[in-house]
């Protein structure tokens, strides 16, 4: 639910995709270290996005904008204290590897079309909502999303060039590709922000592409 909300805020503020991925990474890192009461999860998410904006955006939104999107549920002092606590907890380490950056590089190496890259971006963004994918390396999940997108768009094979730049063979990521395909086949019904976003014509309506059959997966 928190990631779905962060995607909605990213859309409303017209933020970079890198900002969203960094914010989710900050949330995951913080929650892996500290226990947070349910009523403060939105505060953690908003503070993480605020920090990510400062790192990635040329013109980041103001703190007042973040207080507004939280329906004024938190005071300015609470928000700033959460930002300080977040940064201290993660050791001020914001330069984290992000799956989105890996995906862009790999797609460039593969000379993938914008439609194939958008398909991969949709799969990758959907994976942010599933906790089971947090255990995978950022480079591995980016590779698997690209391979699944290539299969869904009939955009060629996993080449030796991709093996070289990603460090993975298609066999290395086949299990993860299968998991991602199952995720696309059964998306969470209540959380629709990402699917709505990628159903738009500007994103080639990739969210409307059906998951692959078992036969197509193994071919």
From TrEMBL:
Question: Which UniProt key words apply to this protein?
Answer: Cell cycle, Cell division, Cyclin
Q: What is this protein called?
A: G2/mitotic-specific cyclin-B3
Molecular function in Gene Ontology: cyclin-dependent protein serine/threonine kinase regulator activity
Q: Which residues form the Cyclin C-terminal domain?
A: 97-212
CDD domains recorded = CYCLIN_CCNB3_rpt2
Q: Does the keyword Cell cycle apply?
A: yes
Name the source's superkingdom. Answer: Eukaryota
Species of origin: Magallana gigas (Pacific oyster)
Q: Which GO terms describe its biological process?
A: cell division; mitotic cell cycle phase transition
